[in-house]
Specification:
The structure is a single chain. α2 packs across α5. Helices cover 41% and strands 17% of the residues. A four-stranded parallel sheet has the order 2-1-3-4, sandwiched between helices. A two-stranded antiparallel sheet has the order 5-6. It has five helices and six strands; from the N terminus they run βαβααβαβββα. The chain is an alpha/beta fold. The longest helix is centred in the C-terminal third of the chain and has 22 residues, at 127-148. The protein has helices at 15-29, 54-62, 79-82, 91-101, 127-148, and strands at 3-9, 36-42, 85-88, 107-110, 112-113, 116-117. The radius of gyration is 14 Å and the shape is globular. The structure holds 4-nitrophenyl phosphate. 4-nitrophenyl phosphate binds next to loops. Residues 9-15, 42, 46, 121, 123 line the site of 4-nitrophenyl phosphate.
């Protein structure tokens, strides 16, 4: 059975594209791609159609992952019925998702939940913020994948 997972942040240009790329790479490494449907989106619409932030593209490339082909989109109401799991990068986005989609069938939860913590928004910071996001997204993706395999 296919497991569908949607990674969500605010703009869908920094954190969730990295999470999508890292999770996809992990699933490919483990040879279980055919069991997953993976996507990302933002609660905001400002960057609809944009490629990921160059700093996210760069940090992904440093670890051998190409996310340059992704394009940002806003979360849609159908997502709450179409995805099995929707993973919020931080508590603000978790609150927005629960408000928008609480009636849908998707399980909506914080991406990092052991222990629960946010992936900090790196948009207005320096390159260190993107390194930190990569590290958190990598370990969170491993934990999440192990929890469902
Ligand atoms: P993201 O980062 O939510 O990780 O994609 C942001 C990108 C853009 C904005 C905020 C956060 N913005 O305000 O445009």
């Amino acid at each position: 059975m296919t497991h569908s997972v949607l990674f969500v942040c605010l703009g869908n240009i920094c954190r969730s594209p990295l999470a999508e790329g890292v999770f996809r790479a992990l699933v490919e490494e483990k040879g279980v791609s055919d069991r997953f449907l993976i996507d990302s989106a933002g609660t905001g619409a400002w960057h609809e159609g944009d490629p990921p932030d160059p700093r996210s593209i760069e940090i992904a490339a440093k670890f051998g992952i190409d996310i340059s082909g992704q394009r940002a989109r806003q979360v849609r109401s159908e997502d709450f019925g179409n995805f099995d799991t929707i993973l919020a990068m931080d508590n603000d986005n978790l609150t927005t998702l629960r408000r928008k989609g609480g009636q849908g069938s998707a399980e909506i939860r914080l991406f990092l939940n052991m222990p629960p913590m946010s992936v900090p928004d790196p948009y207005y910071g320096g390159p260190d913020g993107f390194e930190n996001v990569y590290r958190l997204v990598r370990s969170g993706s491993e934990t999440y994948l192990n929890s469902i395999l």
